[in-house]
Amino acid sequence: MSTIQTSSYRRQRDHFEPQDIDPQEQRRLRGLLEQIDYAAFVANREVIGHALPKLDPAMFQRLAVMTAGARAKWVSEALRQSESGAPATPDQIARLTAARTAYEELAEAYEGLRRMVERGYLSIKT
């Protein structure tokens, strides 16, 4: 089973790959699976293409800047909390958690958007 590493979690691929069937049946099954994959590609391209605006490089840059700002806020909050040397309070931990969650969500959105372009679901105006 292969694993896909994203920035904050791992997704398992559990595609069944038959080993004990004859070559003709394997070709037929692979052809069917290619049709299924193509149907998913077309569905993603149509649905995502209608749901999201036409992208341009400036949109990616704004999302990247926002993500970088969230990362900086998260780390600066951790550093600020560590200055006293006292154990963190529940309120401090909640603020730190909220900052980390914001960063992780923005980073996943950026990576997701990039994957959509890479897979051909969206195009970028140049």
The strands making up the biggest β-sheet line up spatially as: 1-2
Give the radius of gyration: 21 Å
Beta-strand portion reads under 5%
Poorly predicted segments: none
Give a quick precis of the structure.
This protein has helices at residues 23-51, 57-82, 90-118, and strands spanning 3-5, 10-12.
Kindly describe this structure.
By secondary structure, this protein is mainly alpha-helical. The protein has helices spanning 23-51, 57-82, 90-118; strands at residues 3-5, 10-12. Strands 1-2 form a two-stranded antiparallel ribbon. Helix 2 (57-82) runs antiparallel to helix 3. It is elongated, with a radius of gyration of 21 Å.
Give the secondary structure arrangement, pairings included.
Layout: E1 3-5, E2 10-12, H1 23-51, H2 57-82, H3 90-118
List keywords for this structure.
2 strands, 126 residues, single chain, mainly alpha, 3 helices
